[in-house]
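In this section we walk through a basic example: taking a raw amino acid sequence and producing a predicted 3D structure, encoded as discrete structure tokens. The instruction is simple. Fold the sequence below.
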Amino acid sequence: MVVQINREDFIYEVKTFLKVYFPNEVISCLALTNRSNDFLIEIEDDFLSVSYFIQGELKYNSNASEEQIKHIGRIVDKIEKRKEQKKLMKQLISNVATQITGKVQPWGILTGIRPTKVVFNLRKKYGKDTNKIIEILSKEYKLSDAKIQLMLKIADKEQEILNKNRSSETNIYIGIPFCPSKCLYCSFTSFPISKWQNHIMDYLNALKKEISFLSEELLKGQVNAIRSIYIGGGTPTSLDITALEVLLKAVKNAFNLAQIEEYTVEAGRPDTITKEKLLLLKQYGVNRISINPQTMNQKTLDLIGRKHTPEDIIKTYDMAKDIGFKTINMDLIVGLPSETTEDVKNTIEQIKKISPNNLTVHTMAIKRGSQLNDHEHIYTYASAESIEEMLNITSEGALSIGLEPYYLYRQKHMVGNFENIGYAKKGHECTYNVEIIEEKTNILALGVGGITKIVTQGGKKIERIENVKDVEGYISRIDEMIDRKRNFS
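The resulting token sequence is shown next.
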């Protein structure tokens, strides 16, 4: 598909949004010429127009209305004007693309990963006028009624958590980039632990150095402002018990865990979890863990490279529950290769029997960094219609065991253009998940691939400080990683 556009600064947004309607198309953009190739997009200050041609003949067209042109013309601030131009451009593209494909996108013109931010921004402007907010979400953002109600409900849940934020609050992420093996769908920074076994202590020593800098220098006198700690990966429990204790001891020595509301370790894969490791986590103050099935169908587990059975999931969960963990999250992925609605029904029925107090349902995302993009293998995926049915199955299943949606985010390259939703029983919502999505407080990220986010200008700006994404680089450049944070502060 060839798109002609006269504004280079909008090319990224155009390509991203067109992919929602035409996921299998290779989209290229050209400057305006006398030829008409597929889409023609004109943005001239206050005027916008989107046209679609077939063999040089105009087929569909959508222009900005006189009222919309006047609205943009009244905006003086350049950044605000561009935002309104982008929103209007996506509305016009949506009008034309819907005519071409016959598809109405339930998420309308939204492509960002944090939809609830739109609700929070509208509430700042319109307060408790929910009817006005619904009108804008429907007319300007073209959202379906179901997605609007979902966003409003989740925004309420998130607000309850955000209301408890303190000034200068900090949340901490610690990355352990090792796994027993890399799952087929995974695009995270993770490495097979067998290949790095001789460097694990080197990595932990570097990590301990960054943790000490955090507690002794960056947060000196503010350690009680830490609300949550999240150790993720990778799979942190892929560490053997000696290495795991080195990590947990470093965290305990650095921070006053008694003052921390939530302390999560992603146990993740049951083939990395033992009773001894669970007892160790409990001993060191961890009060929330994840045990992630992704699916309860053995054929899919084998396909995606998970070295465990559905029975292993149940045994591990029961063991963690008996040990006394307050909150146990379970992750599922909807839309895994070759899975059908019947497979998802089987998964959710098994999960209902377990009845976790926290469940996160992800829609399959085919990322560039995953093995799913290995063109030597062809994988089959469910249609958008089937994905929607699968998500409805998981939603109904979650609600049936007392779980309510409490946080939401979206990703690029999601099969069917849907969403990821976290469900929880009252009191078991994940604080860290809400904080990382809504970006209202500082997130200090340590370890390989960690991205620290510092909230500045009263929440109007997010400053990012990135760590390197390779293990050797992190170990050899740990002083540089520390200096990046030190220099910012």
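Looking at the output, two observations stand out. The radius of gyration is 24 Å. The CA atoms of residues 217 and 307 lie 42 Å apart. In the next section we compare this with other chains.
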